[in-house]
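Quick question, first post here. What does this chain look like in 3D?
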Amino acid sequence: MATTPAPPAPAAPPKPTWDPQRPQVPFPWLRPTIRIRLTLLYGGMFLIAGILLLSIIYLLAAQAINTGNQPLFKIVGGTDISVSSEQCPAVDADSSVNVPLTDFNAAIANCIDDQRRAALDALLSRSLLALLGLAVIAFAFGYAMAGRVLAPLGRITRTARAVAGSDLSRRIELDGPDDELKELADTFDDMLERLQRAFTAQQRFVGNASHELRTPLAINRTLLEVHLSDPNAPAELQQLGKTLLATNERSEQLVEGLLLLARSDNQIVERKPVDLAEVASQAVDQVHAEADAKGVEIRGERAPAVVQGNGVLLERIALNLVQNAVRYNVPGPGGWVEVTTELQQGQAVLVVTNTGPVVPAYEIDNIFEPFRRLRTERTGSDKGVGLGLSIVRSVARAHGGHIAAQPREGGGLVMRVTLPV
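> Answer (accepted):
Ran it through. Tokens below.
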């Protein structure tokens, strides 16, 4: 009894990549930065020390003025004693007439005790206000000092972001005392110097390899075309020439793909406005003849989606995806390829969907590796040299975007390229 194959598992979401030009958070001052943490540390230590100092002063003041119930003095006798007080009505001359001395002394003690408590309360409230004002000043001073201390780290961060944009000529060149931050900056500058030399050597190698590899292949192609143009050449020689010409063309494609892959691994420095809809339409026009020959229908609506990037490399993205969608489709008529472009949440999106064989989800990651295809590795094929999707991924990353592949229900793939506008 035949079993129904389980539907393919959904593809895992693409891993986020660090983007040096990522948008800033809405409230950057709410981020728990080192400066904020140092400010809270400085201000918190001052606040704790102030509270402890205020508590000690309050206890010492309370002990010094003796807030107990024992009076500092009392009237033991005498005649014609007259006492007047606006703060203590109980001992006023008018209200204390014919009052026993015991009650009179108790009223004086209570009045003095109330005055002492009022003095302590006033001391506490004014001290708290002073502590609050000093705490605000301490936090502001700590924030300013933390910013001054961490300013070299800000320079290092800005330089690192500029370097991530392929500007390897930038240097920190931090001056000041020979401390740990200057040592870090000098080490970073040395690393940038080595990286610049390495990238310069790589670019020089790519240029030399481009010349050295293209020239003999172009010569071979010219010689083969000249021999094939001879009408008197034997049929066997004609067939051999066509085979060699196809092999030579495949080698040229491989060289071009490798050089493009090497060039697109870096960030794009010079960017211009490019409409993904126009790029995708040009790619569709170039593949239309091949699609008609295979009986594959190309459809889809392409809305304007302008991005900042390199037009030639972005056209390569669309062309490689559409070519793959046409070549790896269902045999015979009935297949289709849908190419759409749109803007979603501030990003330009290119989606290429096609019919074709069922693709297991666990093989999705392999198709982006150089020279790898579904169920085959480093094998010859008339459908390409195995670098198309690798180039697409490199170009997308160079533009600060990414590509995600997902198996389509019923067979085929959904390729989604997302680029920042």
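DSSP finds seven helices and nine strands in the chain.
The helical segments are 34-65, 101-164, 180-228, 235-263, 276-294, 311-327, 388-398.
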